[in-house]
Amino acid sequence: MRVILAEDSTLLREGLVRLLAEEGHDVVAAVGDGDALVSATAAYRPDVVVTDVRMPPTHSDEGLRAALEIRRRWPETGVLVLSQYVEKRYAAELITGDGERVGYLLKDRVVQVGEFLDALERVGAGGAAFDPEVVRRLLARTTHADPLATLTAREREVLEKMAEGHTNAGIAGQLFVSASAVEKHINAIFDKLGLAHSAGYSRRVLAILRYLGS
């Protein structure tokens, strides 16, 4: 997989370059700011870009704005955003579109090498990968008047796993229930939220997170 990294911390950037190279990925560019990320994407057209949210010169949202521009100009390029914090507004902006080839991980997740690489592969394959903590924070935005309040505890667990990007089989394995039980919970969730059922899990993530961000 052809990857571009955007991270202003030289130590972290070089560490990720080495990790991805060892895993067989081709890191075609490693840059330290948002403008350089957009320019490198235009030049190399990678499969996935991995970018921090906060980069020079203001260390506010340069990386996020670059990621959004990349999604607009090159929708075939996957975008995996890394952040030190749960940026709720940024997460909502990031998933606007078809919900494919997109991910949002907290930087702590990068330490879990297997989870980071799995997220990268998932985004590169056209799917979605959202950090569990991001999903929990988005769910926490709901109020008593929200239809999410009608979900059972188990349905909320299934919803969280769906929003993380897991397949039905993956959810069944993690919650120790049958695949048919997961399907029933998912149907109930979509009925209660008024969301159309979609066969692709990444599209389900988009529908759910769009609703949560409304």
TrEMBL record:
Annotated protein name in UniProt: Response regulator transcription factor
Annotated organism of origin: Amycolatopsis nalaikhensis
Modified residues (4-aspartylphosphate): 52
InterPro entries: CheY-like_superfamily, NreC/VraR/RcsB-like_REC, Sig_transdc_resp-reg_receiver, Tscrpt_reg_LuxR_C, WalR-like
Organism taxonomic ancestry: Bacteria, Bacillati, Actinomycetota, Actinomycetes, Pseudonocardiales
SMART domains: HTH_LUXR (SM00421), REC (SM00448)
Alphabetical keyword list: DNA-binding, Phosphoprotein, Transcription, Transcription regulation
Residues annotated as domain HTH luxR-type: 144-209
UniProt-listed Pfam families: GerE, Response_reg
Domain Response regulatory, chain residue ranges per copy: 2-122
